[in-house]
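pasting for the record
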Amino acid sequence: MANDAFANATVISQGQLPYSTSLSATGTAEPGEPAHAGSPAMASRWLSWTAAQTQPCRFEEFFNSGTARLAVYTGNTLATLTPVAQGLGSIAFLANANTTYHLVVDSPGSDFIRLNPFPPGGADDLSYAEPISGPLPLQVTGNNIVATAAKDDEDWLPSYPPIATVWWSWISDFNGTIRMDARRSNVTARLTLYEKTPAGSLVRVAIGVDIAVLEVTKTTEYLICVDSTEGTGKIEFVLQPVPPDPPSNDDVAKARDLGSGSVICDGEWIHHATAEAGVVNETPGMFGLPGDRTLWWKWTCPASGTYRISQLGSDRASTIFLYTGSPLAGILAATSDLPEGTLLNATSGTKYWIQIRTIAPHAVRTEINIHPATHEPAYFQTLVGRGYFALEGPDRHPAADPDGDGFPNEIEIACGSSPELPDAQNPRLPNLLPHLSGWKLQWQRDENYLTGGSGLPILLRGETST
């Protein structure tokens, strides 16, 4: 059968990456075949792939991860194979440009496998930190698939010592505040930022998990170290300038009016917000200690019912306070310090005052979402779960079209395309195209998808549209 013998390996083309497929349970061993992952060959299936560029890759199996033996080799014949990586369930290796790799799965059952190259970026060694530059916001991609931890990598996060650190260097061209947002990574990112002194030594100036905030000085060089708390994977972060002044809705008298819509999305930079003396649940700083940072909104309920007011998408969960009547002497209607917010039994025509308060240093930006909870949509949770964090404020609304491709966020997320960028810039996702009075999905080629969370595979095959 195809792919049972080394000579009949399934060839993976560059255009098929990331590649995933199912393998039947009909593999056998052949004479001269090497042992895989420490055990003699028994039921092997072969694939081959020639790397177009140097980049880390992960080769993994999903049905029999506890017993499936995986291996990657170079060489032209069974007798001349040189092992590159071997293991059970999942292995990582550094693929070199123009090199052909032979991949083998050895297990007695059916398998579902994936070969996933990761975008190059980030240096494993501080001495070779990869320089990054360009106007802010600056998006950076990389990975720590084959990275290691050095003995002098700082261990500041309890229970999560450094495991696979990668480094970038950046020189600031302004004085001010930046936010580093790594929530698009497919790992939980452990961030450590250093300032390089004129003498060449490094001083740690910021830390964070997924989010870090840093005061920067023009012409100063900063070293960025990214690790993951568990496992390794793709790393993606954005360096974004934080507006230097308090927002327009910093004071209760200037609360932002959200109108009377049943679905509302808004947001604001809370990092430079302040507290007002004499205002409920606000304590100004004193004796050199920081005070609360608060922002205000007001919303008029369009129809009586239960609504959810949430902070999904915010940097860090802050505390939401909801009031009726005068915000200075009104009635506290609800409060929550959870990202999913709180449920509010709202009355038609009633104006509600919304106060968001934080003292967390990593709470740089806050988002606010309002929607009916009677048939509560999964949209907002899905929006966060898929990592669309560039969508801020009104751009997060289900009916918004921030990428300008004619399709609202709600449809794009439901169909798997990206609401952040025009579909032409997302070759790994299906395109949404107008069709008669509605729309259709179009794949440029066959696509393979894996579900998140459980990791169980779902194979979707879409034919090229004519």
